[in-house]
Amino acid sequence: MSKERIQISEALYDIMPSDYQDLVKSATYGKEDRGWKDIGSSKELIEQHSLCAGCPESMAFRYILASLPNPEDTVMVGSTGCTSLVFPMVAVHNIHSLFGNQNAIASGLKRALSVRFPGRVKDVVVLAGDGATVDIGLDMTLQAWFRQEKFTTICFDNELYANTGGQESGLMQKGFVAKMAPVGKLFDKVRLPEIARESGCHYVVNCTVSKPSLVEKVIRNAVHVAREIGPTYLQLYTPCILEIGKNSMEGLQEMRDSEKPTERFAYKEYISEPAKQLLAELAAKDKERKAAAKQLAGQAQAN
Amino acid sequence: MADIKSVIGTQNKKGQTFTDPWKLLHEAPRTPSFFTGSEVIKEAIRRASCDVMIAYPITPQSEAAALIGELFAEGYVGDYFRGESEFAVMSQCAGAAFGGARVFTTTAGPGTMRAMENFPMWAGARLPIQMIVTCRGINSPLSIQPDTLEIAYLLNTGMLVWHAETAQDFFDWILKGYMVSEEPDVHLPLALCCDGFFVTHTKDVVNLTPADMCLPPYDPYRSPVPCMDMECPPVRMMRDPFVMKSNYISYATHASWQQEIWAAIERSRKHSIHWLNGLIDTENVDADIMIVTSGTAVSQGREAIRMLEDEGVRCGLVKVKTLRPWPEEEIREATKNAKHIFVPEFNVTGWLAKEIRATIPNPHRVHAGPHVCGGMTMPPEIIVSEIKTALGMKTFSLAGRGS
Hints:
The complex is a heterodimer.
Chain A: H1 18-26, H2 56-67, E1 74-77, H3 83-86, E2 94-95, H4 102-116, E3 123-129, H5 130-136, H6 138-146, E4 152-157, H7 192-198, E5 203-208, H8 212-228, E6 232-237, H9 251-258, E7 268-271, H10 273-302
Parallel strand pairs in A: 1-2, 1-3, 3-4, 4-6, 5-6
Antiparallel strand pairs in A: 5-7
Chain B: H1 4-7, E1 17-18, H2 21-26, E2 31-36, H3 37-46, E3 52-55, H4 62-74, E4 79-82, H5 86-98, E5 103-107, H6 109-114, H7 118-124, E6 130-135, H8 149-154, E7 160-163, H9 167-181, E8 190-195, E9 203-208, E10 213-214, H10 248-276, E11 280-283, E12 289-293, H11 296-310, E13 315-320, E14 322-324, H12 328-334, E15 340-342, H13 351-357, E16 366-367, H14 380-390
Parallel strand pairs in B: 1-10, 3-4, 3-5, 5-6, 6-8, 7-8, 12-13, 12-15, 15-16
Antiparallel strand pairs in B: 2-9, 7-14, 11-13
Helix pairs in contact in B: 3-4, 3-9, 9-10, 11-14
């Protein structure tokens, strides 16, 4: 739990890129209570990205990377799409292989890491778009859940194929007119959160990324439950402002509008009984740790 | 991580001794055993120190894939499960190999075709996965019978492709395959092919190495690309992702990456020669007539040579062991005296004959045939008949062939 593995040899320090030097100096690998509040005061685990200006996906990426509980032992799996433009800039090991096979890759990866590092925590987190998760990769998404593979699946739901130019996807709303849906999409948005629950996921959340504190909470919960119990699924609304005709500054409002109680991204969660128990235990430990820290700080002040 | 050499002589949890691979394969005592090809695959994997095997049922590899499940239950394989399709299985294999595991899988025919998108990805990601291909028909109407057409599709994936003749080849080459594939200057996947049913479902005497000796484990830190396990620094691979860039640097990067894969196949040549004792085997290379082929067609060719000898016709043989790397120089040398080169094949297109024609001088010497396909057997008589017809000799009429 430290930055030990990324240290730079002194002789080579000055020729290393400054973003790597920054990672060594001030990234939060190994920090127990790391979270979105570290953004701005520490080196983030994402360098520049090549997404559109104001893209909510870039915000989501930053919050998620700030919130992973164990980035020094986390491997991420991506898929083809806008996310694959970002992963080369992410400072945790990550795999892109094909389009839609992310949950199959993660299944093999998690098992290999379990064989190779018995007794050690190695988290696996999948992060892919809705085309990859729900259309071309649905079979592998569901089968990984049926098998109770112990990793987290995050779907960046922008309700269309953004990277190829805004075509219809299974998570698009019914009636939306898009490329390949010239008269409007003819069937309902696929209800993947419900399907996830029925397929054996132990922690399922459907929400937007408008609130970093909420993203932090659900990421930590999802990773902890996946590590100890079984598959978890997060469906996060990251609207493609370009394809729905919004301006750079309008992404946040679009998410706020879509998370109202009657809207399709109103906060929804499902937590299995074993997961509830685990999260309660983790919350109790967290409380204990904070109380102890407070007491220690009080004592230090008194001395 | 432990140095591989330092584990030699120590034991794994099953009490097998990690043994120097060369000694295991060339010096350890061998026990003749009467096994099916599928059982031989299991016995090779018992000795291969595999971390992960992923299975899917498809004839004719189902038995081998299930037998490795038994090895897992006995504790010889680190993890094992049934995937949901060949496409998924090959991606699961990739995930496991990205995570630093020694990975094994098996497939056949339509499974190979369904999984095809994965193979250039395996090569491009430099994953030394070993995949057994027990070839069968891929045509419609549905066929489960032996047919080697699928090998043609594997030849340009960037994988190493070997073609075993017998169950003995299989046993030795599975173990040797890992040695070649895992070399840092190779580090490529291997498609180890055989002719389904003929090799998998027939029993043969195979000389096995001792069951209490096994290969040393795979060391993922000898890979030319980083292992995705967060045990080494998460380097930033590129400033901009190359995927979307339309500029010369992007094209040059992709081009050099592809060239490097094919260079790695070339570099596997020296290791393959070392382990397989040459990329080809030959008999009677001074003969005017040569049979050049791979897989079980080699066995049928040998029988045809014996039959021709009885009639006073001298004929030589080239057994092509590796299709990638392609033994260009070796085949040119072995066929330099030949006036006629016959290429018997178990497929309709004659892909091996095309490769040979593209390799040797005076390619008109190549007679692409005989061909059988769709599950037909290849009696040596039809090879004899093909040769005699080409030489203008009188030949008997084969039943049903209307000659």
